[in-house]
Every structure is written in structure tokens, then in C-alpha cells.
Write a structure and sequence with these properties.
The chain has two domains: 2-167, Beta-grasp domain (Ubiquitin-like (UB roll)); 172-221, no CATH class. 41% of the residues lie in helices and 12% in strands. The protein contains nine helices and seven strands, in the order ββαβααββαααααββα. The chain has helices at residues 18-22, 58-63, 66-70, 92-102, 107-119, 122-130, 141-167, 188-191, 207-216, and strands spanning 2-5, 8-11, 43-48, 73-75, 88-91, 194-196, 203-205. The strands form two sheets. The chain has a five-stranded mixed β-sheet with strand order 2-1-5-3-4. It has a two-stranded antiparallel sheet with strand order 6-7.
């Protein structure tokens, strides 16, 4: 099945977390904590298919305000696909990016709203994090560090891909290979296209060869 994340079609299966569906498709969902219900950056709005998703988890109930829940907000690291069907979501980081590009004057009000919604759940959030020593939400330090490292790595890759798309940034080209010994180029057959003059020594290199040299920076004897 496919679901739509930030207007991008993503392949998914029943049982997948929304976060895990978005990551390989570069779906632009924040998850600095690596998907461990700590950082509150993986908020998404479910635009279609809310009934196909898992019920609200204890982590979501502790960290999402009533207003956000009514608006269809979920935490992508806590939400599973339970039934096949049409699911469409928009991540909060993507919504903020679009607002910045299309109507930046709305940003102060948006930031104030999100700050308030976090503030009204501050006590519940702290209480939830404090009782995580055991049970379903227990954190293991080594695994947490690994998850955070993966999240940061994915974020860096996402930034690089965005820059590459926006500005045409390319990876450095591979250095041309050279034959050992005589220093001639790998494409010896192409370089052999020469014309011998009357004196038997002059070599006129073809335009094709000159172009090859310019493209590769190759030097031939």
C-alpha cells in the first residue's frame, strides 16, 4: 500500500510506524531523539485516514494538548498503521517550511500557538518522562545514543539532498584512472586515432581525443 506524506507517495505496510515510513522516502518529519518520544519534533497532522491508525498512545496523551489532538495531530514515532487504506499526513516541520516560503508573516502567530500548546502540557510531559525507568517506554542509554546518532545522520543527508536539489550541488567526480608505467590514458584505443604525416613522426590528435582530455584532465605521452 501507499500513503501520502507531505504530498509524496510512500510505500508502507500494516504495522509500520509513520516515522519509519517517512525516513527512507525522505518525508521530512523531525525526530531528533531517534523516535523515542522525547523531543516532540515528529508531530504530524493526519488529513485523511485517522481511523486506519493506532489509538492514541500514553506518550501522545501526555505530550499533545487537547487542541492539537482535535486538529488531528499525532506523534509519528508513536503512530502505527493498523489498516490498509488512504492515509494522508502533513508534518509540522513541513508546514512550518511552507509557511516560511509562502507567508512568513504568519510565523510569529504559529510559533506562539505551538509554544502555548507545549506549555499547557509541560507538567504532564515531565511526569511522563520521569516515570520511564521501566515498562513499555523504558529507555536504554546505548540504544538511545544510537537512535539519536542515526537521526542526526539522516538529518544531515536530508539537508545535503535539499541543497543538491535547490542549487545543483554535485558530488566530486571520480579521479580518472591511469595506466601504470607509460602514463597513457585508460582509453588507449580512442587515443590511437591519429594521422601520420609525411615525415612519419608528426601526430595529429583527433578532436574527439582533445575533448576527452578536456573532460578528464588526462595527460598522454
Amino acid at each position: 500500500m501507499n500513503i501520502t506524506i507531505n504530498d509524496r507517495e510512500c510505500s508502507a505496510q500494516v504495522g509500520d510506524r509513520l516515522l519509519d515510513v517517512a525516513r527512507p522516502h525522505q518525508g521530512h518529519i523531525g525526530y531528533f531523539c531517534g523516535g523515542n518520544a522525547i523531543c516532540q519534533t515528529c508531530y504530524v497532522r493526519v488529513l485523511e485516514g485517522a481511523e486506519l491508525l493506532s489509538p492514541m498512545s500514553d506518550a501522545e496523551k501526555a505530550m499533545l494538548s487537547d487542541s492539537l489532538i482535535k486538529e488531528g495531530t499525532r506523534m509519528a514515532c508513536q503512530t502505527l498503521i493498523e489498516k490498509p487504506g488512504k492515509i494522508t499526513i502533513l508534518s509540522e516541520v513541513e508546514a512550518a517550511k511552507r509557511m516560511t516560503l509562502e507567508n512568513p508573516l504568519q510565523l510569529p502567530a504559529y510559533m506562539g500557538k505551538m509554544g502555548w500548546e507545549s506549555a499547557v502540557k509541560f507538567t504532564d510531559t515531565i511526569a511522563f518522562q520521569a516515570r520511564r525507568e521501566q515498562g513499555e517506554y523504558a529507555l536504554e542509554a546505548t540504544q538511545l545514543l544510537h537512535d539519536v546518532a542515526v537521526a542526526i545522520s539522516d538529518a544531515v543527508q536530508l539537508i545535503f539532498d535539499a541543497l543538491q536539489s535547490a542549487f545543483g550541488v554535485k558530488r566530486p567526480a571520480d579521479k580518472p584512472e591511469e595506466r601504470a608505467g607509460n602514463g597513457c590514458c585508460r582509453d588507449a584505443a580512442l587515443l590511437a586515432k591519429t594521422v601520420t604525416g609525411d615525415n612519419g613522426h608528426m601526430r595529429i590528435v583527433s578532436a574527439e581525443v582533445l575533448q576527452l582530455h578536456q573532460e578528464r584532465g588526462a595527460v598522454c605521452n
